[in-house]
């Protein structure tokens, strides 16, 4: 066990250098991308997926003549690997992973592997909430400024596949805690930590401090000329930082207090200052992204842009004309004076809190799905003040009923997006909003949150 300069603990042996046998566990976007890059670099490559491999990825592997297996892990084809690249979705507790670790085989992420083969600057964004929006906004600003930049990680196309095929100067990488768990030598040139709130605790022994420690790996290996951007208002981030001394230059951001070097909100104006006499100011009314949580996201992206010495006019223009991602507070339609909003990407309680906080009308809330040990208490005040009815969308809705039965008059169970949209429409009146913001994962009734959001949008358009 070794501890790096930031007091972040690393618990796996470093990967061995040189060609050898690379086994990839998981044949999704990241796995197939890693297979392409590994093959290009001269490794003997094998891909194994315990689930069913999607047709598009099967075809990609067949085209490259990369051997693979589906719906099983054959130990004699895996345990002889020089190194293993693991999909973020596979937990460390999976039997095959435990056997690999026990015998000393390095198990790493696609990000860790691909970073070895590029000299591009890494802008890495993590957090329980807002990382997709902030990653896309940061990418939008950098691209508009004319930088040779791409987007990867937990969003967009595989980082490894892009490293194999393209040559970029900058990557904006959305990084999940699952990815961070399998990153050891990787270094972020610019690291952004938006917030830490309870999420995926089932992967962290239901301990928030374990999850927080995973998030703090975003700054491992950083040096004095690197940059760390974090939210000075986020209690859990500050707790996690209390025992760590980042070597990088730090730039906090806050909406509650003035910051000397970083970003802060004063009245309705954002101030971003990374160097003396080089301040950017912007009215929050000019931001494309509205709501308190999006002020934080815009501040983080703005600090990245200022650190890279982009022009203030370019930053303001980009933060003013950005269009948010699909399934994140996406306006679907206005029917009979009722706004329908798709926030299917809200797969945890904190994301739903942010969505409700941004609502300015009465809400019929559609929520539910696979509960990851959610604590709904943080939603109770917002539900009392803004939500007139809850439409549950999931196989097991008991915990939602238990949490909110005293706070709203109507809680209804539904088992399809079509049924949920129809009932919500009948419960709402002109001037209300119907908000799909589930606070839960989608896998009980849908393939993923995109499928849930797309089915909801299709159902709304049929009303």
Automatic annotation (TrEMBL):
GO terms for molecular function: ATP binding; UDP-N-acetylmuramoylalanine-D-glutamate ligase activity. SUPFAM superfamilies: MurCD N-terminal domain, MurD-like peptide ligases, catalytic domain, MurD-like peptide ligases, peptide-binding domain. Residues 327-440 form the Mur ligase C-terminal domain. Its main location: cytoplasm. Its EC number is 6.3.2.9. Transmembrane segments: none annotated. Pfam families: Mur_ligase_C, Mur_ligase_M, MurD-like_N. It catalyses: UDP-N-acetyl-alpha-D-muramoyl-L-alanine + D-glutamate + ATP = UDP-N-acetyl-alpha-D-muramoyl-L-alanyl-D-glutamate + ADP + phosphate + H(+). InterPro entries: Mur-like_cat_sf, Mur_ligase_C, Mur_ligase_C_dom_sf, Mur_ligase_cen, MurD. ATP binds at residues 127-133. Residues 125-304 form the Mur ligase central domain. One of its GO terms (biological process) is cell division. GO terms for cellular component: cytoplasm. Belongs to the MurCDEF family. Cell wall formation. Catalyzes the addition of glutamate to the nucleotide precursor UDP-N-acetylmuramoyl-L-alanine (UMA). This is UDP-N-acetylmuramoylalanine--D-glutamate ligase. It comes from Pedobacter agri. The lineage of its organism: Bacteria, Pseudomonadati, Bacteroidota, Sphingobacteriia, Sphingobacteriales. The gene is murD.
């Amino acid at each position: 066990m070794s501890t790096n300069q930031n007091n972040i603990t690393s618990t796996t042996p470093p990967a061995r250098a040189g060609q050898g046998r690379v086994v990839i566990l998981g044949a999704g976007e990241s796995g197939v991308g890693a297979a392409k890059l590994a093959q290009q670099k001269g490794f003997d490559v094998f891909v194994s997926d315990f689930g069913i491999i999607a047709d598009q990825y099967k075809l990609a592997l067949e085209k490259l003549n990369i051997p693979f297996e589906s719906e099983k892990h054959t130990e004699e084809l895996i345990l002889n690997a020089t190194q293993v690249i693991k999909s973020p979705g596979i937990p460390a507790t999976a039997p095959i992973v435990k056997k690999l670790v026990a015998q000393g085989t390095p198990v790493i992420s696609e990000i860790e592997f691909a970073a070895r083969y590029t000299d591009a600057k890494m802008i890495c964004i993590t957090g329980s909430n807002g990382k997709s929006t902030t990653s896309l906004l940061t990418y939008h600003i950098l691209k508009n400024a004319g930088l040779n930049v791409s987007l990867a990680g937990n969003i967009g196309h595989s980082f490894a596949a892009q490293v194999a095929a393209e040559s970029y100067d900058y990557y904006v990488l959305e990084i999940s805690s699952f990815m961070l768990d399998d990153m050891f030598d990787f270094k972020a040139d610019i690291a952004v930590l938006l917030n830490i709130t309870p999420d995926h605790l089932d992967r962290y022994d239901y301990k928030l401090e374990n999850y927080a420690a995973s998030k703090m790996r975003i700054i491992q290996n950083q040096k004095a000329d690197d940059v760390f951007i974090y939210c000075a208002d986020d209690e859990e981030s500050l707790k996690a930082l209390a025992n760590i001394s980042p070597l990088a230059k730090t730039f906090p951001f806050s909406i509650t207090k003035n910051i000397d070097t970083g970003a802060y909100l004063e009245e309705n104006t954002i101030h971003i200052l990374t160097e003396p006499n080089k301040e950017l100011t912007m009215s929050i009314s000019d931001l494309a992204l509205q709501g308190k949580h999006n002020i934080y996201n815009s501040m983080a992206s703005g600090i990245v842009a200022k650190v890279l010495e982009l022009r203030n006019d370019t930053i303001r223009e980009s933060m003013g004309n950005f269009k948010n991602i699909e399934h994140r507070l996406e306006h679907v339609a206005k029917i009979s004076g009722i706004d329908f909003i798709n926030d299917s990407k809200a797969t945890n309680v904190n994301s739903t809190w942010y969505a409700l906080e941004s609502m300015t009308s009465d809400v019929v809330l559609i929520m539910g799905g696979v509960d990851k040990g959610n604590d709904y208490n943080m939603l109770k005040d917002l539900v009392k003040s803004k939500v007139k009815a809850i439409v549950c969308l999931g196989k097991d809705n008991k915990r939602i009923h238990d949490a909110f039965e005293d706070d709203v008059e109507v809680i209804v169970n539904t088992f399809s997006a079509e049924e949920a949209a129809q009932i919500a429409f009948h419960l709402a009146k002109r001037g209300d909003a119907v908000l799909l913001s589930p606070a839960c994962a989608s896998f009980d009734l849908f393939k993923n949150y995109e499928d849930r959001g797309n089915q909801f949008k299709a159902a709304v358009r049929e009303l």
